[in-house]
């Protein structure tokens, strides 16, 4: 049974039809504008989203840092490569195919996905490289999309796949590739259905810029950032644990679960503390202790009851 429940609304709170239709027109225009300009921030049209209960009372990481310091190997391995190299990426038109062990497989258009009720959620983001941010995402529960395709009883996992466009993503071209493509990720079905897991279509009140995973990406805040697969084109429900790109590349360093855990170090560095990007300071003043499950243990620890989190890292 899904943990996601649509809110009960009074008739007075229902959006009038003409407003809904105007929103659809706006989304279509925003998508078209992104194609016309082709810039890395071209898709940054304003989004309207309701405030969520899922917030953290911490200072937001500056938008310039969130949009210029990140990992997106499809555009290069340096932190500044995504913003520098994503200008030629075209995030529209876009579809996400949802298939596998479902009763109603479907290919969803971007406009249909963005017409779902959107929420702003302020989440901590913890990179496996021991740095962190606080980011105001806009998106919708992954469970809301899964419910539309009606997972079958034998579905146990959810697999994700990103786009492959070497002509637009320079990190995917050339003789020597840092990773195998497409980038793939996976969650257990109960993790995917958890209310904290979202598909994000925006950040800082606007649609996602190319370098941050435009037009749609996964956000699971209790896990290391590499689980947040970007520019998703396919979601498949399966009865077997799906492959995960970094786990395939270095299984001794990157586990399938990737839960933030200060007691399980990366083989090459400690995970006991983290560097909060954008806060400045000297001599490690912006370092802080890493929180188990990135501070979301109260909500998600029960998902792993009885598991050895050192073996299942």
How are the SSEs placed, and which strands pair?
Blueprint: H1 17-37, E1 50-51, H2 63-66, H3 81-85, E2 95-100, E3 106-109, H4 110-114, E4 119-126, E5 131-141, H5 142-149, E6 157-162, E7 184-188, H6 189-193, E8 198-203, E9 206-207, E10 217-219, E11 232-238, H7 245-249, E12 273-276, E13 287-289, H8 297-300
Parallel strand pairs: 1-4, 2-11, 5-12
Antiparallel strand pairs: 2-3, 4-5, 5-8, 6-7, 6-11, 8-9, 8-10, 12-13
Structural summary, described in words:
Helix content is 18%, strand content 21%. It is of the alpha+beta class and 313 residues long. Strands 1, 4, 5, 8, 9, 10, 12 and 13 form an eight-stranded mixed sheet that branches. It has a five-stranded mixed sheet with strand order 3-2-11-6-7. A hairpin with a 4-residue loop joins strand 4 and strand 5.
Which terms would index this structure?
disordered N terminus; alpha+beta; 5-stranded mixed sheet; 313 residues; 8 helices; single chain; 21% strand; 8-stranded mixed sheet; globular
